[in-house]
Each structure stands twice: as C-alpha cells, then as structure tokens.
UniProtKB/TrEMBL annotation, chain A:
The protein's assembly and partners: Component of the proteasome complex.
Keyword Nucleus appears in the UniProt entry: yes
Organism whose genome encodes this protein: Nelumbo nucifera
Protein name: Proteasome subunit beta
Keyword terms of this UniProt record: Cytoplasm, Hydrolase, Nucleus, Protease, Proteasome, Threonine protease, Zymogen
GO molecular function: threonine-type endopeptidase activity
Catalytic activity annotation: Cleavage of peptide bonds with very broad specificity
TrEMBL record, chain B:
Coiled coil: none
Function in brief: Non-catalytic component of the proteasome.
Name the UniProt record assigns to this protein: Proteasome subunit beta
GO cellular component: cytoplasm; nucleus; proteasome core complex, beta-subunit complex
Origin superkingdom: Eukaryota
Gene3D superfamilies (alphabetical): Glutamine Phosphoribosylpyrophosphate, subunit 1, domain 1
Alphabetically ordered keywords of this record: Cytoplasm, Nucleus, Proteasome
Family to which this protein belongs: Belongs to the peptidase T1B family.
Major localization listed first in the record, in broad terms: cytoplasm
PANTHER family according to UniProt: PROTEASOME SUBUNIT ALPHA/BETA
GO biological process: proteolysis involved in protein catabolic process
Length: 233, 225
C-alpha cells in the first residue's frame, strides 16, 4: 500500500457556508492529508480576511493559503484607502480575480462569507475555475458530495443563529463520517452585526451516525470486571 | 520560474501573464441555449443549471443576460468564462454610452465584437470555453446569431448550442416558420426544452425564458417556470 508521503498537502475537506436571518455561519472539518497520511488533524480551514469577512478553504493547502494571504493584503489596503470596512462582495470578487486569472495553476475551491452594513450576511462560492456565485448556502470540498441530498432536504430560509449553527455542525459531522479525506473536529465561525464568534466541536460532542459506537475513554472500561471468558470452540 | 519580488508577482497574479496559459478543460458548465426569431422579435431559453462534471451542482445560474438596450446574450460552457465575457461587454456598453451621441450598439455590432474576442483567444490557444447566442432587435430589425469557442459564427432564424444542436435543431427546422406568434414561439421553445430535459443528462428542470420585442426600447420579459 503506497502512503505517498510526498504528495502535495491537500485538504480533502468538508466546508460549508450558510446564511441565516442576521448573518452567516461558516463550518469546516480539520483534516489535512498528504496522500494517505493525515499531516494535520487539527487544522483551521476558516481563515480571516478582514474583521467581518472570513474564508473557508478546500483543495490544495498551499494554493488556498497563498490566495487568502494575497486577498487579505489587498483588502487591508482597500480598507485603508476607502476608510471603511470592506464589503463581502469586494472580498469575494478579489478571490474570484485570483482564482480565475490563475485557473491553470490553482486547485482550490473557496467559500467567502461575512457581514457588512450594506447587504447584511452574504455567502459567495468560488469553485475551481473561478466562477463566482452568490448563494443562500453553499458546500465545498471532497466531503460535500455526501451533503447535497442532506441540504436539499433540510435547508430552509430564515433560520435563527442557533438553528443555522446546528445545521452546519450536523452537516460537517455527517460528511466526516463518510469521507476519508475529512475528519478531526468541527470548527464554526459565526459572523453578524455584533461581531465574530469562533466555536469548536470535538468528536465527543457530535451526534452518532449509523454504525458508529459511543466513545470510550479506554478499552479497559469495556472489559467486564472479572477476567474474560474463553471462547467456545 | 516565479520571482518572489512582490511587485512583479502582484502584476502577474492580477493579470494572465504568468506561465503558458491555456484553458485545458471546463469546470462549472451550462448546457444548451435555444433562440428563435418570432413575429415581433426574439425568444430565447436556457435552463438554470451549472454542472460540475456529472454533478448537477448549481440550480440558479442565470445564463441569459441583457446587453445594452437592444441585445440578449445566452451562453453554454464554462460559467467563469461567461462571467468574464459579461465584464468585457459591460465595458463595451459603458464606453458606447460615454460617447453620448444618441447611437447605441445593436445586436449585430455586439455579435461581431464577441466573434473577434472568441477568435483571437482561439488563435492564442487559450479559448473562452463557451458557445454564445446573441439575439436582439434594433429599429425593428430582428437579429439572431451564434459564436462558438473557436470563433465559428453565423446568423440564422433559429439557433441552438450544445445538446440542442442535435436534439432541438431538427424540431426547429421542421416547425419554425416566419411570423410565429408569441404563443406558438413559446410552445416551440418549450417543446425543445422538454426534449432536452428528457435526453440531456446535464439539463435541469428550471428555466429562464427571455423575450425581446421592439416596441418598447427596454422591455425584457423574463419568465421562470
């Protein structure tokens, strides 16, 4: 079995962005893989662009990091020059510009989410190729394949903040259950007029899905107090 | 290879100058667009799907857009390239308006502009991966044309791209005639879109239908079914 430890770092990933009545919730898993090896099991794939705009990264770790670094730099200058916080639309279009003009070299799917005073909470998807699409919610990364049906069924407009975050955590945890390239913990970022809240959900706080067992602290807890019975032949 | 100097990298990153550029394959694509001339103007239809390979990923993509006062563009193929074409057209119309000379670019002129853009990109082996339909009415004259990603362009009474070339064209050849009424035109488009929904794997059941007619200068009539 070839572990392929020299493969470029790719964030297999599940990323989700959802609008709710008053803001947005961004969610992601925390696994970064190099071939079959998990290079980082606690990565943070939701990176900050400005005070009010965050980015979910998927695909090549290097490509998405460099794109986000450039856009953060440009947005910083833009904020200084305009004298007010950048809008989500501007951030998303900068992401699009880099993704589109370098489409032959980049392999990264991105979700831009944030809140500004003009349009409120907005989510923009920028998949491979550099298309930009404003959507009420969007999913990305390899784990997203397992979530299309889930969102088709469960998504509704005008959710509350708590409902939206619960939906995001449930979705990422479902994807982690089935996608080998997604795993670790679930991280969420909630952005609204009041500010930004980061949350962290380790495995034991997530619901159990099909064929999953209750977490135990130690195998010793499961063994009966007396010595185990020999198997009958 | 790539210089680490910030200014050069910045210039290169914001434009398409780094490395040998060629679009190898499309990522998010739209399927067929159908356009017909009818008695009073032009009717165009396209579904609202954006496919990502075999996944029907996006279901609210607008692939028909008005251009200036007289035209309508429909695109199949890579959506990011279509969005870029819309930016080029936006600039074209803006400059035209800035002349403020009472003249405005009609569909024939816009079609010609698109043809040049597509053909020149093809010559550089870096095509915009789209098939475009350009329809419009100016001074009572109806116009309907198409441009492909390699610069092939022509005008006709009915146009189809993508799967529509194979499935819709025979229907249009048989049933199109001069002086189609609005109702008959819509019924004809609907027939074509139904067949495409049956037989095209990347079709979705949500449509955009636009109608251009000459009496009112900017009356676009979008219907969603």
């Amino acid at each position: 079995m070839d572990l392929n430890l020299d493969a470029p770092h790719s964030m297999g990933t599940t990323i989700v962005g959802v609008t709710y009545d008053g803001g947005v919730v961004l969610g992601a898993d925390s696994r970064t893989s190099t071939g079959m090896y998990v290079a980082n099991r606690a990565s943070d794939k939701i990176t900050q662009l400005t005070d009010n705009v965050y980015l979910c990264r998927s695909g090549s770790a290097a490509d998405s990091q460099v794109v986000s670094d450039y856009v953060r730099y440009f947005l910083h200058q833009h904020t200084i020059q305009s004298g007010q916080p950048a809008t989500v639309k501007v951030a998303a279009n900068l992401i699009r510009l880099l993704s589109y003009n370098n489409k032959n070299m980049l392999q990264t799917g991105l979700i831009v989410g944030g809140w500004d005073k003009y349009e409120g909470g907005k989510i923009y998807g920028v998949p491979l190729g550099g298309t930009i699409l404003e959507q009420p919610f969007t999913i990305g990364g390899s784990g997203s394949s397992y979530l299309y049906g889930f969102f088709d069924q469960t998504w509704k407009e005008g959710m509350s903040k708590e409902e939206a975050e619960k939906l995001v955590v449930k979705a990422v945890s479902l994807a982690i259950a089935r996608d080998g390239a997604s795993g670790g913990v679930v991280r969420t970022v909630i952005i609204n007029s009041e500010g930004v809240t980061r949350n962290f959900y380790p495995g034991d706080t997530l619901p159990l899905w099909h064929e999953e067992l209750e977490p135990q602290n130690s195998l010793l807890d499961i063994l009966s107090s007396t010595s185990p019975e020999p198997m009958s032949t | 290879m790539n210089s680490i100097d910030a200014t050069i990298a910045e210039k290169g990153l914001m434009s398409s100058e780094m490395g040998s550029e060629r679009t190898l394959y499309p990522y998010v694509t739209g399927t067929s667009v159908i356009g017909i001339k009818y008695k009073d103007g032009i009717l165009m239809a396209a579904d609202m799907g954006g496919s990502y390979g075999s996944t029907l990923r996006y279901k609210s993509v607008e692939r028909l857009k008005p251009i200036g006062k007289h035209s309508l563009i429909g695109a199949s193929g890579e959506i990011s390239d279509f969005q870029e074409i819309l930016r080029y057209l936006d600039e074209l119309i803006l400059y035209d308006n800035m002349w403020d000379d009472g003249n405005s670019l009609g569909p024939k002129e816009v079609h010609n502009y698109l043809t040049r853009v597509m053909y020149n990109r093809r010559n550089k082996f870096n095509p915009l991966w789209n098939s475009l339909v350009l329809g419009g009415v100016k001074n009572g004259q109806k116009y309907l044309g198409t441009v492909s990603m390699i610069g092939v362009h022509f005008e006709d009474n009915h146009i189809a791209t993508g799967f529509g070339n194979h499935l819709a064209r025979p229907i249009l050849r048989k049933e199109w005639h001069e002086n189609l009424s609005f109702e008959d035109g819509v019924k004809l488009l609907e027939k074509c879109m139904r067949v495409l929904l049956y037989r095209d794997r990347s079709a979705v059941n949500k449509l955009q239908v636009w109608c251009l007619f000459p009496f009112v200068t900017s009356a676009f009539y979008p219907l969603f079914s």
